[in-house]
Amino acid sequence: MPLGHIMRLDLERIALEYVVPCLHDIGFCYLDNFLGEVVGDCVLERVKRMHRDGELADGQLAGPSRGIAKRHLRGDQIKWIGGTEEGCEAINFLLTLIDRLVMYCGSRLGKYYVKERSKELLGSPGSPCSKETGDRGCHETTLLTPPCWTLSDGHRRSKSFVVALHAWQVFAENQNGWFSLPHDGVFLGQQSLSISGLRCRGEEQVLAMVACYPGNGTGYVRHVDNPNGDGRCITCIYYLNKNWDSKLHGGILRIFPEGKSYVADVEPIFDRLLFFWSDRRNPHEVQPSYATRYAMTVWYFDAEERAEAKKKFRSLTDTRKREAPVNED
Prior knowledge:
Layout: H1 4-7, H2 11-25, E1 28-32, H3 37-52, E2 57-58, E3 77-81, H4 89-105, E4 114-117, E5 127-128, E6 142-144, E7 148-150, H5 160-174, E8 178-179, E9 193-194, H6 195-199, E10 200-201, E11 204-205, E12 208-213, E13 220-224, E14 232-239, H7 246-249, E15 253-255, E16 262-266, E17 272-277, E18 284-286, E19 293-302, H8 303-323
Parallel strand pairs: 1-7, 6-16
Antiparallel strand pairs: 1-17, 2-3, 3-12, 4-19, 5-13, 8-9, 10-11, 12-19, 13-18, 14-17, 14-19, 15-16, 15-18
């Protein structure tokens, strides 16, 4: 069965027995072999094509430098996508599985209640850390190996994945956005998943960020994704780098857990899915990359914090409009 590996993924069990406990205990974790080689290859080839076709633009900073590209601080090139663009079927499928996994975490994340993936961000993905943020210095020497759940892959899958995926999407369109993943008697049963329900709210497109570090020694300085309560609570990063050797290629994502005496290094290897809290609990950096490094990031919002952030953002925007000088002819 071409998709046997994916169909055997008990996403609810992984969420409740692994992701949720790890987030509560240490604040991060990752899954290896999430999609399997053939499906992951489809995602990788689409991302490579975006890069080749010049679709990526320099990443920009938030905070005082918002909207400014400073490659010595942040050296990636990015593109925001919804997964519904032409040729992005495999990416759409990946995002759907991540959506489902995170939604199983649901209301089990302490103060957070996750209802949806990120749409349009109120700022850029992260703000560089400074003394004013209260973040610790970089003096840690102890290295923690993050917990990992490796998903077994007993099959070499064929290109029939693409045929199956297109068939599901056609069926989904005919069913007003609802479909059930094929059931092989292991986990999905008759549960259904809404494609459109998690991807779009009104006129807002639900976004993921494709990122490439071009291998010229650039990285991303230590920063916090959500330092000021914009609603993002979980950061998910899917890595796409085959034969990655961090001793040669660098590119490690280093997490500096708040209040801990250790750091955690995550290698950006192919088909790895990383989870961590988006707020000040997890300052992190991307170390200089000396080979082309691809990743895809999605953020998930806490409903209450997101609503409050949007309210503050609208109020600030209105204030700036009122205070803007009036041009007189």
